[in-house]
Amino acid sequence: MELIELYQKITEYGEICDHCLGRMVAKRSYGLSNDMRGKGIRIAAALTLNKPYKGQEGPCWICGDFFKTTEAWADRVIQAFSGISGRTFVIGSKVPPLMSESEEMVWSDLGLSDPEPLKSEINREVGKLVAAKSDLVGDTKNPDLIAVLNISDNTIEVQIRPVFLYGRYFKYQRGIPQTHWACRACRGAGCEICGGTGKQYLDSVEELIGAPLLPIFKAERVTLHGAGREDIDAVMIGSGRPFILEIADPKIRDADPKTLEDIINAHNSGRVGVTDIRWSTRSEVETLKNHKGHKKYRILVDIDGSIPDTTLHSAVQQLSGAIIHQRTPTRVAHRRADKVRERGVLDFRYTGKEGKDFVLEVTGEAGLYIKELISGDQGRTTPSLTEVLNTPARVIRLDVIHVEGIDQVKSHGTT
């Protein structure tokens, strides 16, 4: 459709502002703002039709003259961002359905293929003004701050990009889960069983690490993403377990990682600790979750009867390097799919005794159930130490002493 004919048909719908008029052909030219395109179309129509130039004479029937208010919106965004640490931002918007439907009706009726949505221009024009009036820099890919303009409600919602910290944690005290557990009875609401706390356990590694950081970052909450998890009755010692802590809605974004590490350790002396704290990213969370690192355990095992050391040495050598078939253990069957998994034992050693019990060290693939490797779980895990010895054996203490992390894989040059 020729430009002048298009102009005539568009103006038949009602009064329209230069922004909305220019947006109808936004993709036909570059280097121009939509209001410049709109003015140009009006001038071309006046020259071609030999008629007086006619500008907008009433409220725009599509946007309701929104673009006369962009500066006020920009000022409000800057005010909404005040007191929040951030260097980059992006503007989003929620446009009233009637506005979207109005312009889409024109696109459909006239078969337009070059328009730009109203929402896109609102985001861009308000964003340009925010950048001009502040020290913030627009960034559509990874902004620290997001301001969502709700045009219908005349409100602004501020969203803050989380910050992420990578590190390794130690758990020195048994009976602490890795992450928050809601009370099984009340599901977090608070009841007599949980003493009104809403928790199955009073503390978690996640909460203990996060507690001293919340006031530093002026944040709402933290989420711990771990490279696997140890049993609640196990300790995590040795090199520590890799984790990434996601800190949500931080009003402050800058801090010294080493200082944060010292604060966490001082706050949790004797219970949990951290090391190797550094900044991380959301993408690294996925890498951490998908990485299947090897794990090494030191376990104290009780074996029925009297077992000669030579017999035990022979049994662990038989299991070292073996592929273990493990049906979902009885103790976790209520929350895991019932299937058989194959996992490898990379190394298995007998290292000594504590009283009448035996100290063993096992290095296994991610997902290997260590307690069941020893007990056999009534035949659900095979082979097992119980099966090889033909004598019941059970873990009475389990310590995780090494978890391979993504940092080690990178340094080895492997994937």
Can you count the beta strands? 14
Separation of termini?
56 Å
CATH topology of the largest domain: THUMP fold
Largest sheet: 10 strands, mixed
In terms of structural class, how would the helical and strand content be classed?
A: alpha+beta
Q: Rg from C-alpha positions?
A: 32 Å
The tally of helices reads 14
Shape: elongated
How would you spell out the order of helices and strands? Answer: HHHHEHHEEEEHHEEHEHEHEEEHEHEH
Strand content: 25-35%
CATH superfamily of the largest domain: THUMP superfamily
CATH architecture of the largest domain: 2-Layer Sandwich
Uncertain regions spanning at least 5 consecutive residues: 409-415
Average of per-residue pLDDT values = 94
Q: Which CATH class of the largest domain?
A: Alpha Beta
Question: What is the number of domains?
Answer: 3
Helix content: 25-40%
Description:
The structure is a single chain. Helices cover 32% and strands 26% of the residues. It is α+β, with helices and mostly antiparallel strands. The protein folds into 3 domains: 3-160, 2-Layer Sandwich (THUMP fold), CATH 3.30.2300.10; 163-290, Alpha-Beta Plaits; 295-407, Alpha-Beta Plaits (2-Layer Sandwich). The strands form 2 sheets. Strands 5, 6, 7, 8, 9, 10, 11, 12, 13 and 14 form a 10-stranded mixed beta sheet that branches. A 4-stranded mixed beta sheet has the order 2-1-3-4. Strand 11 and strand 12 form a beta hairpin. Helix 1 packs across helix 3. The protein is elongated, with a radius of gyration of 32 Å. Mean pLDDT is 94; it is low at 409-415.
